[in-house]
Amino acid sequence: MNPGTAPRVRARDVVWFALGVLLPVPWMVANAFEGLGLPYEGIAILSGLAILGAAFMLSWSCEVAERDIPQSLALLVLALVGVLPEYAIDLHFAWVAGKDPSYAGYAVANMTGANRLLIGFGWAAVVLMACFKSGSPKLEVHPRQRLELRFLVWATLYSFVIPLTGSIDLFDAVVLLALFFAYVRAAMKGDQEEVELVGPALLIDAEFQDLGRRIWALGLFLFAAAAIFFSAEPFAESLVHLGKNYDIDEFLLVQWVAPLASESPEFVVALLFAWKLRGSVGIGALVSSKVNQWTLLVGAIPIAYALSLGAPRGLPLDARQTEELLLTSAQSLLAAIMLSDLSFSRREALLLAALFTGQLFFPSTEARLWFTGLYLLMGIGILVFGPATQRRNFLHLVVPRFRAAES
To answer: What is the pLDDT of residues 47-106, one digit of tens each?
Structure first.
């Protein structure tokens, strides 16, 4: 903000800010009194509104934080807070699996469902929203997002190795956590840039100086994190119980309904960025979330399982979970290849959304294998028959020195 320039704060910004902060309050109060005996319908509504309010607060605090820290690090922190409920739910399943083996499948089901939902719905929705708002047939992604994309490619390629041992073991945890901490280190070295704040983020920036602004950003982060943490699991559980009343398959509920609670903050935040014509930041936030899930979350699962079991063993994968993991890896690879040229078209977004939707209607073993093969064939087709620049860009992500060596 330039000295002497008065920022324009509108009354509706104050209303939005108050709404975002107040939405989690009813559930936080009810939760403090053990739900107040609410039926599952009431729990679903109040905890869902709490998550929605937290998502708004996350988007504002992330925008404010970009004033003071590198954007890559701001997106990383946003992604970490946004996936807290996913960690809570998935690690709960992994921990219980150490005592009750029947829960082992739920941990992988929830993780793979969340990952595929993130790309198949989240990425596609952000690109389509950005294209709609800008009137462009594609979303141009800033080169700084190449950092998140590179670590996504590395984590995705390694994920194809995991099913070979029949489990997600402690060696996988070491590799994936090493990737995560390398990502954190790289994100901390990113460049800062002057950002133009709008809405409630502008309200915070206009009313407070540097220290006050940072305190508000941190406070919103912490309040949003608490709201998400205390709301996501009750929201997911209430949906599961409601679904059972309609005789819906419990496995599918764990895989698809529970992630809707844990992933909704990330989707709302990213869509808000796209709505504000900052689609590159929105897709960057979701790519960062994907990196976090592929590295920190998947790496933490076998650790939680081994600690609960009291033995250094990996979380076992049955045939279905192996298929689910391979399908998730194949989807991630195709999406990374599409984004490797730092451009995502409306047509590519619709393709990802269509393939993801197809999986919901055809959950059989044959369909999972068919979709896995289709993702891989499309990815290979883009690399072999697509533009040479895209092929070079992808290879540059895999081997950073490739482009320099080639030239």
So the answer is: 888 988 887 888 788 777 766 666 666 666 766 766 677 787 888 889 988 988 888 888
Q: Which amino acid is at 385?
A: F
Q: How far apart are CA 395 and CA 40, in angstroms?
A: 50
Is 5 in a helix, a strand, or coil? coil
Instruction: Give the tokens for residue 211.
Output: 């220290």
Tell me which residue of 125, 84, 82, 129 sits closest to 356, measured CA to CA. Answer: 125
Radius of gyration of the chain (CA): 21
Domain boundaries, the chain: 11-400
Closest CA to 125 of 339, 332, 350: 350
Tokens 């005592």 -> residue:
99
- Choice between 216 and 352, residue whose per-residue pLDDT is larger: 352
Q: Which of 286, 278, 232 is nearest to 120 (CA)?
A: 286
Please name the residues in contact with 274: beta carbons below 8 A apart, sequence gap of 6 or more.
126, 127, 129, 130, 133, 282, 283
Distance (Å) of CA 103 to CA 109, 244, 316: 10, 17, 11
Amino acid at 78: L
The class of domain 11-400 in CATH terms is: mainly alpha
CA distance 192 to 356: 36
Which H or E element spans position 345? strand 343-345
